[in-house]
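Board notes, transcribed. Complex of a protein with magnesium ion.
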Amino acid sequence: PSETTKRRVTILGSTGSIGTSTLDVIGQLGGRDAFEVVAVTGSGNIELLAKQARAVGAALAVTADESRYDELKQALSGSGIAVGAGRQALLEAAAAPADWVMAAIVGTAGLAPTLAAAQRGADIALANKECLVSAGELFVDAVAAGGGRLLPVDSEHSAVFQALEDDQRHAVERIVLTASGGPFRTWSREQMAGVTAAMARAHPNWSMGLKISIGSASMFNKALEMIEAKHLFDLRPDQIEVVVHPQSVIHSMVGYTDGSVLAQLGCPDMRTAIGYALSYPRRSALNVERLDFAKLSRLDFEAPDEERFPALRLARTALGRGGLQGAVMNAAEEAAFHAFVAGRIGFLQMAEIAEEVMEAMAGWAAAVSMDDVFAADAEARHRAGEIIAKKEMAA
Ligand code: NAD
Ligand code: MG
């Protein structure tokens, strides 16, 4: 294709697990011949960010870490690639004209940049589920107002999206999100009490960033995904089911009012979902592993245990209450996750902290604007911090 027909893409969080997979998919689908990479962004890993920017010929490379500007500038000297650092530069990278923006920053840090991209009118490929959990309808509305499409990247939501026929939305009865159950699927609470971050990050099926790996072990990731699904597909809470499926082959399902259930299957590799979001509504050929059913031989399912994995119960509470409870749950959990990884609190305390903050902030009125979301996020983080300090003292 000529310069003018190249698809303009930006990857927010290009140095992470989803970001590197996205660049791999872009490479497989024609690389610089088919895409113009507008911006790539990262935070700590400057060497990788610079290497990526050079490899794809990005126009702009930005690190969220303001103190790393000189380092990035140095690493890209002579390349002609523009360099930026810090919060404002990140927002500018997000808002630079691109047709398609991969939102793959981890955590609430991704909310403001992803919003900037949405408001400018890009199609948003959403890996950063925290955006939707925190800002819910406000985020969905921002994408719609910008004129872009919201394309799910989370494997479960991509599966639902793929199994959801537009003209049959009226007949959707439920969606069934599958969960691997993580490394502690069969563990008792007593056993889980002593796990370390190193144990929790070892996922049986998927290779992912640290936060989502820990979130898979505690099933907080599935809790976030339940709320993500509500907003993406405009569902009632009682239409959202979770089933534990240890092989991670069925990525999720849609149940229709005639009793039919449509599932999407594949090997656990995020590149399929990323490729779908990039090529939608078409599909592109990808060099990923194919399912071998004879080798698989069986698929297992079990009901999730909300006693051992209270995150799922908290998601139900947040869905029932609506309003800012998603933002509160997400922020409290993110603070607790950082404390757990730092060795300050135990594995089971993450859910306790989220629950305590959710209870304390249950009366907060629903968000009218994004400012309300950011205020609830900050307050929940602050309250979580106080509880973490108390628990640390008691330990
Ligand atoms: P990761 O930790 O591997 O990468 C995170 C990226 O965000 C990196 O590029 C990092 O530089 C950047 N980043 C970190 N802190 C930042 C900050 N404060 N400001 C700006 N940028 C910052 O994470 P990941 O596993 O790739 O996950 C990214 C998102 O995708 C998360 O929201 C996660 O839940 C979601 N997701 C991931 C997977 C997966 O398989 N990894 C699957 C589904 C959804
Ligand atoms: Mg997922």
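The CA atoms of residues 204 and 363 lie 39 Å apart. Residues 154-156, 225 surround magnesium ion (ligand 2) (CB under 6 Å).
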